[in-house]
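Q: What structure does this chain adopt?
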Amino acid sequence: MDAICWTHGDVALGRAVAAALARGHAETLRDDARRVLSRARLDDGRDVLVKQFRVGSGRHALRERIKAQIGRAPAAREWRHLVALHERGMRVPAPLALGVRRDGDRLLLLEWIEGVPLPAALAASFEARRALLVRLGEAANALHAHGFAHGDLHAGNVIVCGSEPVLIDWQHARRTASPRARRADLARLEHALAPLVSRGLRMRLRRAVLGAAATPDALRD
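A:
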């Protein structure tokens, strides 16, 4: 029996990643009570982001197993949302495979996004910052137009690839048409950007996020 049962996506890729992890061909990026994030290097030179959700090995194993059984586990939720958004043409990390370890932990394999965190990208010229924030706002607007809210949209969950912002970390996302949920996305993002960019640039971001809903009242602080 394989140590990991790949239930969704590219099973061959999953096995290649499992082999890379077994050989120690991975860099741990984060390790806490809930998740382990690693960058696995495959034999063909590709990198893959590995998100290990501590369903069986964490301190709240029973609770996480129950959530997994009823389809509310973070790994399964993130997989579903990324598949849906990827199919709609959103620039998000491509979902590659989803698996279950023998201890119950879930492994989610995602496209590795080579880029820089949003705060670092905002150190560019004024014109580049302005263009980047408009593109970020347009990405959030497109997300909402597709019927989703991110749920944890802040500067740390945006990677800039070239000049394109890519939204990451989708485990809190949900399908919703609620204006309140969409405003919450905008509020979190604006709050995170307040120390980094001027009020004028944040207003440009707000206008891009709101799109056709950018009425004078909506743009007022």
